[in-house]
Design a protein that fits this description.
By secondary structure, this protein is mainly alpha-helical. 70% of the residues lie in helices and 0% in strands. Helix 10 runs parallel beside helix 12 and helix 13 packs parallel to helix 16. The relative contact order is 0.05. The mean pLDDT is 87.
Length: 333
Amino acid sequence: MIEKRWASVMSSVETEVNRSLEWLGSERNEVRRMTALRIIEVLCNSDLVSLHLYISKIFTELRNPLRNQRHETRMAAACTLGACMELIPMSERNVRNPWLNFLYEELQRNFQMASVEGYHGALLVSQELLQHGGMYMQSHFGQVCDMALKLKEYRDPIVHKAAIALLPVLARYSPQEFTRVNTGSSESMMGRACNYLITLSRTSDRDRAAAFLALGNIAQFCSTEYRSFLEPTTRAIRDALIQRAKMRIPPAEADETVTAVLQTIATLATAMGPALTRYVRDLLDLMFTAGLSQALCDSLLVLEREVSQLQPAIQGRLLDMVSIILVGVPFRP
């Protein structure tokens, strides 16, 4: 309705925004609070000019939801924050910077709470600032890297996963800073992150999928520097697929880890191109042990496009798989 700019909707925007802000500020009913967050997010995404008048009120009222006790509320508040930030034109620094300063101060305040809610809120605000704050976070990049590294092994799984998810966001924001070895350190942020994620993919069943996806995304944003991590990454992928094959899980039952592994292989192929050939050739047979699935087909499609040397092997194995499914024997020309 909002996208079509219906007159009845436009006339009610002011009423809806005011009611939503009231629910955020004083309402104890979580259903109403979540509804208010969703309404404001949708209105912000509609890019209504009249909503610019409410930016300051929205930012102010989002402070408490971003450190709410409920995980779902914090996540919804972060989505709403990102949508609201897009309303502020990049060119208007005199308008934009005071609010970015305000958000960064809130980030620090949340972190200093030293609680699950505070840490998670700080990580969420960091991600939105990196994604929607333009060059503002360049001067705070090191501090946010330190925060992510500190919280990556935090005992609470929500905080722990949010810290892992922030690592590729940092790589995307400033690949140069992410891969640079700073004075007084023997390892770059990328080195510390990748070594941790590779170890995590080998040792944690719970976090294996998230670790692989993060590694693939880091490779995408820092492809040249990632070459030294290709061998240990593909070895970890190989071990994960072997482990699944040993568990004798029916091929039709694709799990989260296998889907993440196949997606990571595709992301690595996009990032590294032919440089991946010698590493992935030995993975093909293991990829097919996971069974025919959309994730497998998507991964193979990318491999064929980005690593053309593998095309004959991929087509041959795929024909065999389909033939075995249909008639019980490998394909015979």
